[in-house]
Specification:
By secondary structure, the chain is an all-alpha fold. The chain has one domain. The chain has eight helices and no strands. Helix 6 packs parallel to helix 8 (192-210). It is elongated and about 60 Å long.
Length: 221
């Protein structure tokens, strides 16, 4: 594979993609230790009181992951434009990244607030903040992430910028992530949240490697 780099395409996509992946996985590992928001309010409050440091670190990781995601989206949009694709898809993808980053920020701040307010002893407040953390970091993040994945997969498929199987996989993951919106109506669709989260993450990593860097790039498919 021989590639000529066009510096106008921004930094290597692998850098923000890897940073986003590391922060996301680390945050997910910490998040698994906490109680589900649908458990008893007293159990949620007890966890918040016992693990303020874990909540703070998890909030910092979650909040920090929003920044490389937006950097990735901006770089990918610029890269696709340089490759001659003028469709609105990449811009819609960037809007999805901004919405997803905002949702991550809300989720992170809800987790941090839970640690700060736990000493008040209000179990109802603790459970409410847990639901905000779950909702914003779940559907609130995954559905817009699907828009980002679709925003880069569709022009990549049409313009033959990446292997066809990768573009098609991106379309499938993006649609499933968007369908997680309806998990707000029924918990039967909760499985779409991890599918969209980690499937979208893998798709972004794959695109970071496969997407050409400029008009002069020559990629052996």
């Amino acid at each position: 594979m021989s590639v000529t780099v066009d510096v106008r395409g921004g930094p290597p996509l692998v850098v923000p993609a890897a940073a986003f992946a590391l922060l996301t996985v680390a945050g997910a590992v910490l998040g698994r230790a906490g109680p589900r928001p649908d458990t008893a309010p007293a159990a949620v409050l007890a966890y918040d009181l016992a693990h303020p440091l874990a909540l703070g670190i998890g909030a910092a990781l979650l909040f920090g992951s929003a920044f490389p995601l937006v950097v990735y989206a901006a770089t990918a949009v610029r890269r696709i434009e340089l490759l001659g694709i003028g469709a609105p898809g990449p811009l819609m993808g960037f809007a999805g990244a901004v919405l997803a980053g905002t949702a991550l920020s809300v989720s992170a701040l809800a987790s941090w607030t839970a640690a700060q307010t736990a000493p008040l002893g209000d179990a109802g407040l603790a459970r409410m903040l847990a639901w905000v953390w779950f909702g914003a970091g779940g559907v609130g993040f995954v559905a817009p992430l699907g828009l980002l994945v679709l925003g880069i997969s569709v022009p990549a498929l049409v313009g033959r910028l990446v292997p066809r199987w990768l573009a098609v996989a991106g379309l499938v993951i993006g649609v499933l992530a968007l369908l997680s919106t309806f998990a707000l109506a029924t918990d039967l669709l909760y499985p779409l949240i991890p599918v969209g989260r980690f499937g979208g993450l893998l798709t972004l990593l794959a695109f970071a490697v496969a997407l050409p860097t400029g008009r002069d790039a020559r990629v052996d498919r």
